[in-house]
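thought: fold this chain, then report.
action: predict
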Amino acid sequence: MSSDVTLDELKSMNAKYYLSLISFTILVHDYCLTFVAEVETFWRVGQLNWASGFFYLNRYLTLFGHVPVMLEYFWTTSEPNKYEICRRLQSFHQYLAIMIQIVVACMLIMRMYALYGRSRKVLVFYIITTTVIVVVGGWTLLGGKKEKPRIVRVRIGCGVNLSREKAIRLGAAWGGMLIFDSLVFCMTLYKSIISWPSRDGEHILSILLRDGAIYFGVMMVANLANILTFMLGGSFTRGVATMFTNIISSVMISRLMLNLRRPSHAFNRKSTSFAISTSYNPDLTSVDADYTTQVPERTPSPGLDTSRPGRAGAV
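observation:
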C-alpha cells in the first residue's frame, strides 16, 4: 500500500540518499585511483586463476551491481508501476549484498588457505563456516511471514520501508559476517605471531598482518554501524549503512589484493634483498602464484652475500 510521506520520513529518506551517494562516490573514486594498479598487476600479467578471477568479480560486480541500487534511490518517473519496480529493486539490493559478501569471504578464505600453507583443515573449516553464514543469509531473505512493505509517495527514488521483523533477520545475517571477519583476523594474528621472521626488514607476513589488521578495524566499525541501524533504526533508516558496508568491504579486499602484488613489496627495503622466503613458507603465496614473477631479475652486486637461505639474490 502507498501513503503520503511525513516530514520525519522525508528526512530519514534524505539521510539514506545522501549516505548512498557518498558510498557510491567512494566506490567510483577508489576505482579510478586503483585502475592503473589493476592494469599493471592483473591485466598485464594476463594469467587467469582463482585469485584474479575473484578479484575481477569483486571489482566489477560491486561497481556495476550498484547502478540499479542508485536507480532505486534517485529514480524520478511518473510510471504507474513505479512502486512494483521499487520492490524489485529493493530485493535486488538485498541479494546483491549477499553476493558481494560471499565473494569477499571467498577471497579471505584464499588468503587464509595460503597463509596456513594450503592446509586442507583450514580450508574445510572456513568452507563450513561460510556455508552456515550463507544459509543464515538465505533465511533472512526467504524466511518469515510474507508481507507487503509500506510505500510512501515520493518524487525522487523509492520510498520503501523495512519492517522490524525483516530488519532483525538482516541484522542477524550481518552479525554472521562480523563473526567471520573476527575469525579471519584472529587466525591471521596467531599465524603472524608464531611465524614472525627473525630476518631484518619487511616480510610478506608483516604485510599480511598489517593489511589484515587495517581491514578488520574498518570492517568491524562498518559492520557494527550497519547492525545497529537494523536494530535501532526507524522504518526508513533500517539498513541505511548496508550499501556503505558492502562498498567499503569490496574496496578494502581489492586493496589487499593490489597491495600484496605491489613489486616494491617483493624486495626488502632495509637490506635491499628479496623478501619472500621460499624455504620459510613455500606455500605462502600459492594462491597468487604469479606474484613473484612480476619482479624483474637483477644481477647480484659483487661483495654481497647471496648464499643465505630464503634469499633470491641481492638487488
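thought: worth noting. The longest helix spans residues 7-43.
final: C-alpha cells above.
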